[in-house]
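Progress note, project year one: complex with flavin mononucleotide.
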Amino acid sequence: MLNNKNILLIISGGIAAYKSLELIRGLRKERANVRCILTKNGEKFVTPMSLAALSEHKVYTDLWSLKDEREMGHIRLSREADLIVIAPASANLIAKMAHGLADDLASTCLLASDKPIMIAPAMNPMMWNHPATQNNMKILLQRDIIQIEPKSGEMACGETGIGRMSEPDDILSSIKDFFSEKPLKNMKAIVTSGPTYEAIDPVRFLGNRSSGKQGHAIATALIQAGAHVHYITGPTHLPHPKGATIIEIESAEEMLAHVEKNLPADLFIGAAAVCDWTVETDHLQKIKKKDNLTPPQLNLKENPDILKKVSLSSKRPQLVIGFAAETENLNNNAKDKLKHKNCDWIVGNEISPEQNVFGNSENQVCLFQYTEDRKEIIQTDLPRMTKIKIAQKLVNEIIHYFETIQKDNRNECTNPSLNVVPYGSQ
Ligand SMILES: Cc1cc2nc3c(=O)[nH]c(=O)nc-3n(C[C@H](O)[C@H](O)[C@H](O)COP(=O)(O)O)c2cc1C
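Model obtained:
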């Protein structure tokens, strides 16, 4: 996968620099070409000799080396790379990148490059958590720099916390992932996730126990497969999936408005637990509890049916997938939902209290899909597994679906211009 890919590896001054040796070995094993830049402070931790021996190339350390400039030049170094990897990335180098400083070879190459950059931060937990470093990272992430998150654990300095550099194998996997074929490239997906909150008054609401973990895992798996994900989420405690366009909402009405605004798309997955009802009159002031008065009556009205509206929309995505969360009669209820909502697939989700799936990292689902002629429903039961695994299985099924229709189109269509083009690529 990495055969002949040009990787520019920048090694800055941190204890984890020794791990870069293992990374170079892994990259070379995968037949990547590796050029190394070692910062002056990095030289205190690993020697240019070791890096040169493993990378089988000269190691660059100095912006002001006449010989290096004639031979390769800092501009060429940064332009010839298919990917720049910084491992370890020191707090200092991260700060310089965030603010556009160019006072040594590494930072100058980074500023002189338009190539994709992957960074593996490595530092003491206090340095990592410092607002300055966190702000700098935020700036870099806004520039689409790929971050390989630091891990939690015991540090070389004896302290424990987040800051350890990811292991070389994990960095290598991320590099391979970067170069891998993305089967859903150019596809636009809308994923709804989490609960909706229906306001009773400014402080109270009707809600449900959805944690948003399943929708989050699905969005992440879609992003990994190359899709552009528009993630419309109710209130949860989760960090947002990286790489998605995030839309935060509270009520079902708001969720519907944003779903419709984001259509057309190639794919819709309604993983949110949308409240079926909302309160008819939303009070502008807090409803007061008064002695000797009966509790207030809440009149409920039905919320819009987002799944059905998307399925019947003139901008209907090619594939519409809903969720059926049921405490009983899962199979019948899920099949009924598939028929009545006019969607393509239903993920039946067993949520009886014995299954204990709310907030849990595991889930129990089965998939209901129409046959091609829409005359029968195929049911696939999955064993209990993590929500991440379920998301990956679902996304594999989605990839298979789009590959099949693209193949059918190619076979049927003699005029290539009539082939279906993913909406996201238009
Ligand atoms: C023993 C020792 C270990 C260090 N480890 C780290 C580290 O893991 N991460 C980091 O950001 N800085 C670390 N530093 C501080 C950096 O080396 C220092 O900020 C330096 O300016 C970084 O330079 P560079 O970014 O040009 O490589 C360490 C310093 C010493 C003396």
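Residues 12-16, 39, 41-42, 90-93, 122-123, 127 surround flavin mononucleotide (CB under 6 Å).
The chain has two domains: 6-179, 188-425.
No further modelling is planned for this target in the current period.
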